[in-house]
Amino acid sequence: MPPSPPAVRLPARPQPPPLRTCRDWCSINIRLIKCFFGFLFIPFDCSLCLHLKNHCNCCGLWIIMINEVQWLCLEIYRECPPKAPQREMPKGDARFPANTAGGLAHTSYLKKGSSLSVNRASDIIQSPDGTFSFGFYNLSSTVFTICIWFTTSADRTIAWSANRNHPVYGSGSEVRLNKDGTMVLTDYDGTVVWQTNTSSKGADYAELMDSENLVMKNQGGNILWQSFDHPTDTLLPTQPVTASTKLVSTDPSHPSSYYTLRFDDRYILSLAYDGPDISNLYWSNPDFSSWLNYRISYNGSRRGVLDNLGQFTASDNTSFVSADWGPGIKRRLTLDYDGDLRLYSLNDSDGSWSVSWMAFSAL
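That's the non-specific serine/threonine protein kinase sequence above. Prediction below.
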């Protein structure tokens, strides 16, 4: 009897390579077939029984679970980063309309109990006309401040900052409008870096106005706190400088400098150097009397404001006008790091700034 032929060992069915990312999954050559379950996307040329399990959190594709290689899909599901949770938007409340300026849906409000996270770049609120944005602003890859900036300026120029002297870490930090009505900025470890003093005032929401003013209001719409009362180095149109407020310049090597714009003891709006060892007024001309400087000392109030046309007037008779005086131009009055006070106008076509007035022609 002839010997039996050696057993033929069939080669094992080749297994598809493991998929590590949803991009790999998306690049597979798939085909559409019809079975009694309906239309299904089938990877490779597999005739195994398939069933629909879930969709990928990363890209939204349907994931097909193959009986003998289920781990492939599980690898994808486990390693694809989940989509960032969408911040809950107010619904059915006429006080909180969505802002679609620039084609993207943003809100101009932060409701009580809501927060903005440094981990989500989309976590910003925008003024209704889209001119200003409020959120975390990156000074570097790991250092952030909570700021209001010009949305359309080429360098996202900062108009106001809550914590320029105490930046926070680029992961885990958040600003939250607490249930007690206080807006609180916390660092990655929970340390409170900045907060508003509104816990007993019944603040219900925060709103970013077209003027750049960030205001906190109660349910009746009354303003309980506003960023206009706490300027940094910049004044915006309609934002006053008063007896209790001042501008402090920003030094490139340090967030705050010693140059200030404030009302002095004679109620005259002045530029001053307030250093640790010396304080000195340098504008208007300190060698002239207030009369020679065309100023009125000890006037009844201490208030100065830039209007929407580009003219600045103050109670001490300080007055100057932008070179491009007129409506429809976005402007800012900034005390720069060199101690000069400059009025800037924004070019809408390219987002650049031009100087339209300055206290000193050269420094």
